[in-house]
Amino acid sequence: MKNGYSAIAVDIDGTLLNSKGQISDKTLNALRKCEQKGILVYLATARSPRLVFRQTEASSDADFIKEKGTLHNGAMAIDKQLDYVKYWQIPADIVQSIVKFLESELSDIYIAIQRKDESHGFRRPISDDDLKLWAVPKEKIVPFSSASENECMKIIAWHSKLKMTDIYHHLIEEFKDKANVFITDSANWLQIVSCEASKENALKHLFALRNIPIEEVIVFGDDMPDVGMFKAFGHSVAMGNSPEKVKAMARYVTKSNDEDGIVYALEKYFGII
Could you say which of 194, 210, 241 is where a domain stops? Predict the structure, then answer.
């Protein structure tokens, strides 16, 4: 523990990565210094393991950040140093109900189902360029009919022209006790996970493994899936590029991801580096 802090949890997109989609050397060095001082660094991301990190985003120097954290918006918790992994999947019957509901809302909606083995089922065809962004090899694409009948890690829904705001509210009303639903990326994406899955719950689970009190944790984020972390952990920091409603939920607001906001907060608010 350094200065009363034992762990840091950071979101990736919009937080750890700048607008060029890269971890700056300044931010990477600051997090490495934290680890060297005994302050453990955890990820708290919506991404799957395969997308942490893309080659253009970080070099192997950032591998230490991949050792611990929660992925799939809290549906997976991992601590490689302890050889530990845990999953919270959406049950098959709930997957089927959500898919039918989404299809009834918009006949031309895009739906992706991410499974535990990192295979994907896509409701509509995805271009080769989009597959590269998803980092899904063709051999990992399974028929949507099969994917939608089994348990999964996460369901993602979007539309080529419409925002997801209305459907988000309908989903919340219909599945409030059966799934956690997040609206992200300027209301363009819906991300749906198990009702037991959230970044804050997965992190609490991981911290308990190492006897880290939640009072000694600092969390960084920039979007709605991070708000739960802000409520669960007192030392919460919203990036300067966050929407105003996200900033309002955090204890601190730092500089943007293009201004090394993580480093600024660690220096100014917490005196760690």
Answer: 194
